[in-house]
Design brief:
Helices cover 49% and strands 17% of the residues. By secondary structure, the chain is an alpha/beta fold. The chain has 2 domains: 205 residues, 2-enoyl-CoA Hydratase, Chain A, domain 1, CATH 3.90.226.10; 48 residues, no CATH class. α3 packs parallel to α4, α4 crosses α6 and α6 crosses α7. InterPro entries: ClpP/crotonase-like_dom_sf (IPR029045), Enoyl-CoA_hydra/iso (IPR001753), Enoyl-CoA_hydra_C (IPR014748).
Length: 271
């Protein structure tokens, strides 16, 4: 498969997780359409690998997370639960895979966008909550039905849900497991916006291109600083300050100044 920054493709978990990159825009596609893109254990394991390869090998400046076809994701593949989540011991191992996937998205060095169509349930909701930005097609549906299955949602994923929804909406979402509309998710602040069906791909692409056009080091510093504020982490804030200071000695800063003076678009390389 292709291995350049401008034309990159790599499949994981038998093709059910796909990483692609072009124009510095990476995409992780969840592809299990026969089960509404439900995420198997192998797919959970592959998501951190896909995020890592897009940043380290394909040099993506932004990553879009999306599902194949009509749905984002129905969440964890319940058909596996009799084996991978049959008791507390296996559940702990399984939830470690969940946590690693959520962490890979949450801590990804580049901005992440959840592009949501159709169903966004359970673990799919958790993946979307771990993203920096979320846009949905009008009519998308959201739910975290863990309590209806008699299980608790992973605690680290609850952190993302609280940050994305606010405490009260997070409580009603987790306490009831009830489906919610894209309109309600916009009002709650979970979604940046909801887009009409015929304009959805265009709007997602426009946002990704607007982000990818900017300097990667500056984006990284900004993302770390925002995380530090959200998590109230002094060490992370100091790390963001160090990276922010490095931008002033970067080639991208020189390029940004030159482009401004010459009234042209800058071409940033992340150096």
């Amino acid at each position: 498969m292709g291995w350049s920054r401008m034309n990159f493709e790599h499949d994981f978990a038998g093709g059910s997780i796909r990483a692609t990159c072009g124009d510095a825009i990476g995409t992780i596609t969840i592809s299990n359409p026969d089960r509404k893109n439900a995420v198997t254990a192998a797919m959970w394991r592959a998501i951190p690998q896909a995020a890592r390869i897009l940043t380290d090998e394909a040099h993506a400046h932004v990553i879009i997370l999306r599902g194949t076809g009509a749905d984002f994701s129905a969440g964890a593949d319940i058909s596996e639960f009799d084996s991978v989540r049959k008791n507390s011991e296996t559940a702990v191992a399984y939830e470690a895979l969940n946590s690693q996937a959520f962490t890979a998205i949450r801590h990804c060095r580049v901005p992440t966008i959840a592009a949501i169509r159709g169903i966004c349930y359970g673990g799919g909701f958790g993946l979307a909550a771990a993203c920096d930005l979320r846009i949905a097609e009008r009519g998308a549906r959201f739910s975290v039905p863990a309590v209806r299955l008699g299980i608790a949602y992973p605690a680290d994923a609850v952190q993302d849900i609280v940050n994305a929804l606010g405490p009260q909406m997070a409580k009603v979402t987790l306490f009831t497991g009830a489906p919610m509309s894209s309109e309600k998710m916009v009002a709650a602040g979970f979604l940046l916006e909801e887009i009409e069906v015929d304009a959805f791909d265009q709007e997602v692409s426009a946002l990704a291109h607007a982000i990818a056009a900017n300097a990667p080091i500056a984006l990284h510093a900004s993302k770390l600083a925002i995380r530090a504020v959200i998590e109230q982490d002094g060490d992370l804030l100091r790390e963001a300050e160090v990276i922010g200071a490095e931008t002033f000695d970067s080639a991208d800063y020189a390029e940004g100044r030159a482009a401004f003076a010459e009234r042209r678009k800058p071409h940033f390389t992340g150096k």
